[in-house]
Design brief:
The chain has helices at about 5-25, 35-50, 100-115; strands spanning about 50-65, 75-80, 85-95, 130-135, 140-145, 145-155, 165-170, 175-185, 195-205, 205-220, 220-235. It is an alpha+beta fold.
Length: about 240
């Protein structure tokens, strides 16, 4: 091999290395945030239009202080939702502190009823009508086994059920995967900042809650954690015919 050929080979190899380096360091094009938000809004609208009703079983547990293993109070309820009507709850069992059940869990159920009254429920949706949404850079990330886009969300109004934090949506269809943050308004004058998290699963193309957690702390009551596990969904969907 001549010296000239060796030099040409080296120059080609060097050029290839430079191109490879440029390709590997050039950031991927940022997704269209506005288009993704429209997909999120459409997924929420689809859910509302197509669910005529559902039932599920919900397990509520309250933990106090540093004990995250032994609940101080528990309640299992059947949740029944009817479009245009709202939610009703049937208590199937309860155990533990009667005070926590009476002044903690049962008011929580009443609050859920109020939130889901027609005319109220629309104000709690994770849509661009209720939230300012800012797409986090970096492209999709894995969350609960699904490729997701992450948005920083800030509610346009203050309410205990509106979250200031992060929302993850499925990169394929915009359905909710997880939300996490702090309540934009404390639920009562006696509670401190409430940290909230809720995870969702895709059931028949519709995002349904599977697990929720809320933690608050106050001078009077100390640390309190409430968890909710959702199961046994039975969805009544609008006919596609």
């Amino acid at each position: 091999m001549t010296n000239g050929l060796r030099c040409r080979i080296k120059r080609v190899a060097l050029a290839g290395s430079v191109l490879l380096c440029l390709w590997s360091t050039t950031p991927a094009q940022q997704p269209d945030a506005a288009a993704i938000i429209r997909t999120v809004d459409a997924a929420v609208a689809y859910r509302f239009e197509n669910i005529l009703g559902f039932t599920d079983i919900e397990h509520y547990a309250v933990y106090r202080g540093s004990d995250d293993t032994h609940p101080a109070a528990e309640m299992i309820v059947q949740d029944t939702y009817r479009k245009g009507v709202g939610k009703t709850y049937t208590v199937l069992s309860e155990s533990g502190s009667g005070i926590l059940i009476r002044f903690g869990l049962k008011p929580l159920l009443e609050n859920e009823k109020t939130i889901n009254i027609p005319g109220n429920v629309e104000k709690s949706w994770f849509t661009s009508a209720n939230y300012e949404m800012k797409l986090k850079p970096g492209g999709p990330e894995m969350r609960n086994g699904r490729d997701c886009y992450a948005f920083l969300v800030t509610p346009k109004a203050k309410a205990p059920n509106l979250i200031d934090g992060t929302m993850w949506v499925d990169a394929r269809d915009g359905t909710l995967v997880q939300i996490e943050g702090v309540a934009s308004e404390n639920p009562s004058a006696f509670s401190g900042t409430t940290h909230m998290m809720r995870q969702y699963a895709n059931i028949n193309g519709i995002s349904m809650a599977m697990h929720a957690r809320a933690e608050s702390s106050s001078f009077l009551f100390g640390r309190t954690v409430v968890t909710i596990d959702y199961s046994n969904y039975n969805l009544q969907l609008k006919s596609s015919k």
